[in-house]
Amino acid sequence: MHTLLAAAPTAAPMFFDDRPDGAFDGEWTGSLGTGGLAFALLVILLLGTRSGAKHQIKPPLAMLLGFVTSNVLAAAGGAWALLSDLIHQGLAAAGLGSGLGPLGDIGMGSVAIVVLAVAWFVNLRSRAAAWVGLIGGIVFAAAGGIWGSVAYVAAQLAGTIG
Question: With the C-alpha atoms ordered 149, 150, 155, 158, is the resulting torsion angle positive or negative?
Fold first, then answer.
């Protein structure tokens, strides 16, 4: 038995060819990239948390934005990961997270709880809240467990956007 395959007629294009690249094919931010997203988020954090900013970012949003920014910086790698490396080295120099410090075995999970306590109990200004978010994102990722899951979700969100 033989089957006859016929090609289906082509549909008329929905848009003319003069539409901008990326406007309708899923790239709603254009060509961003992870490094570009890291750059944009850092500029937003620096300008939006100034005390004299026209539209100042409120502390809770600054903290969340700092958290996401730290994960984007780590994902971007290269020079963008220097902040993450600096915070890791600072914590290691203080003996936190390694179990070999002068205060005994203080793991990254306990550092994550301290960051969360600072975020919850201390009345922070926008710039300080952004720094707590930046440090929190790095500490949560290093702590693993449920803390690392939160950082993983932020990194996946950043990967989707960037």
Answer: positive
Contacts of residue 99, defined as CB under 8 A and 6 or more positions apart, other chains included, come to 105, 106, 107
Run of H or E including 74? helix 59-76
- Coil, strand or helix at 104: strand
Of 70, 4, 75, 33, give the one whose Cα is nearest residue 162.
33
Instruction: Answer whether 70's CB lies under 8 Å from 133's CB.
Output: yes
pLDDT in tens, 34-57: 888 889 999 999 999 998 888 999
Q: What is the DSSP letter of 106?
A: -
Q: How far apart are CA 67 and CA 132, in angstroms?
A: 8
